[in-house]
Amino acid sequence: MKATIVNIGDELLIGQVVNTNAARMSQMLTAAGIEVVQTVVCGDNAEDIEACVARGLQAGNVVLMTGGLGPTKDDITKHTLCRLFGSELYENEAALDNVRSIFAKRGYELTDINRKQAWVPRCCTTIVNTVGTAPCMWFDSGKFASYDMDGKVLVSMPGVPFEMEHLMQTEVVPRLRAYFKMDAIVTKNILVQGIGESFLSDLIESWETSLPRNIRLAYLPVAGMVKLRLTAQGTDEVKLRKQVADAVERLYPIAKQYIVGEDAETLAELVAARFKDSGRMLAVAESCTGGSIVAGLTALAGASQYVKGGVVAYSNEVKMAVLGVKKETLEAHGAVSEDTVREMVEGVRQRLGADYAVATTGIAGPGGGTPDKPVGTVWVGLATPTMTFAKCMHYSGPRQQIINRTCNEAYAWLLREAKF
Known about the structure:
Number of strands: 19
Distance between the termini: 45 Å
Radius of gyration: 26 Å
Helix content: 40-55%
Shape: globular
Strand order of the largest sheet: 2-1-3-10-7-6
Largest sheet: 6 strands, mixed
Number of helices: 16
């Protein structure tokens, strides 16, 4: 099955808003076994929308659209679809009930203009958007302009990213798989850290070559780690799960020292699961990462069960006053040093009463480097109930890349050293 993604909005064309929808939709469709053949961005213009959708229907079985569904005059998607399907708008009762409910929960009065959110083409199947006011519209019959919809599907969704993602996960992808009677799909994530993508590819080449033909392997590198994603497709889901499990079992003897976990999208998720299950508490002290480590953890539900707290000690004064770093240490070795990160991590563990702690200090750039400590020099510290460790990394790249790699190094070190 082949799909085209059409993202609508002048704000996307001029770069005012980054089009994250295209990437996320492509990821979700690919994971479901649906081939994305093209992604297109068009403005809030009826003729452009028609042309993009027509090309999509010609190129494959499915067109997924986002954007242009609000109550304002520049939101023209519904009106354009009505004209092209030879239909008319009507007020859908289920969609209206959803809009009423959302406005009531927010304490807002339902105005006439917002009531228009519940108006949809008569020829579509309306899918209620439980996290937003604009409904999702599913078309699978009739004619779109001169294109017969027999065997094809057009879906129009709101452009708000979290609304689109919720609809894709809960409604659109499951309906597409059922409508086209697709094979079962089984996916598995293996998170690898401490080895570059090319070196990892060389290391596991023979294993990759031996994978069954119905299992695809994707390398997904992200800031100092690589996510290996196995995707198996076939008619028997039980058999697929057995195939994937066997493949993973064969991988461990080859790459065990670099594998930090499975069945997660990020290292932060693995840390969260490990600590929540253990009942241990974690504290974080950050300088160069500026709170990114603890933010990655507290963004996940249930963080209060294991995150004791975090300190962003960017200045030397805060390192001394809050974490107990000695003035003599800073004067003798500097803020970016083994001695300093050791005192930072020991200080935050003791002062916050945690079982484990991590700390970072470094030079994320683009300025601030010296010949002895160039940009990208980072120290990470780890304190356990019995020992304190520290190690130095030298990263390259832009500031955010250095910060992200440092965060993943800290997460991976916790996963390897937290023995519980």
